[in-house]
Amino acid sequence: MGALKTKAVRFVPEKFMSAVTLRQMRYFVATAESGKASLAASMVAISPSAVTEAIAELEMLSGTKLFLRHPRGLSLTYEGHRFLAHCRNILSSVKDAAYAFDRPDSTSEGSITLAITSTLSAYFLAPLLSRFQKAFPNLAIKLIEESRGAIEQRVLRDHCDLALLLVSNLAENSTLSSYTLIHSMRRLWLSPKHPLLDRDAITLAEVALEPYIQLTIDGAEESTFEYWNEHGLEPNVVFRTQSVESVRSLIAFGHGVTILSDLMYRPWSLEGDRVEVRELFTPVPTMNAGLVWKRGQIRNPAAATFLKFCRAEYGNISSGVPRALS
Questions:
Q1: pLDDT of 227-239, one tens digit each?
Q2: pTM greater than 0.70 (yes/no)
Q3: Mind listing the domains of the chain with CATH numbers?
Q4: Most exposed of 40, 92, 180, 237 (fewest Cβ within 10 Å)?
């Protein structure tokens, strides 16, 4: 994204309110979350130039810089952070208003049995449940956490209504249907003093030379070796663990690197040490999460309501547009 020249003008609230658009806000939020205009453009299915133009318009209307430009992308200014919170609230309110015309009756009653893996129960479930229960207070959800293999069997045997799984790891199965809710980018995690931080483009071949901390839960190791094998490489695994927090701590202390999804990324270890992330020059697949059910019509009306709610909530969200799989 090239440097944007923002003409300094006096901020006029009335002019800003009459000129700002939801489109500009959507593009701004996508850019803030991705850190790059090109990635933001892919998230909202528009050209990078349109994203750049929208941000320039917002900066002109506000009379202030919303982003700092640097070689690796964009970061928010203080004013940008404040504006981001308001944009998210506004877009969420508009989504709620639109959903009100098509959502099931909020007074609907019933219960749903939802099976979920530990990865998604830790990093995805809580805010989704909070929003759903606020919208449908009379629909109860029973949660079951198990391994993905056990969950797939539970779905096939009608022992749960829906499952929340990593669908990027889902085995080809003609008896299962799924709907992808999020596409989460995988990036390189490394310590703050790691020499690779100085590189403008980090390849998978360079990562192969580093000690690698391998997460093993929820099919993580299998999916890791799939995309490494596609490039004729393999990681130099020095430690395997089921604990994301263990991965975070070891990397923060400089004991290795890993490639994991942004869904699980947090910038601090439990000890309070920093974990850095960098995008890889070598393309790696996203980690996709979504709902899974037994092929055919969902018989439980409450479960159908939950699926419809999730489709509306995640219809166009981080790292790409969700896709339905038949």
A1: 999 999 999 999 9
A2: no
A3: 13-99 (1.10.10.10), 110-184+287-325 (3.40.190.10), 186-278 (3.40.190.10)
A4: 92
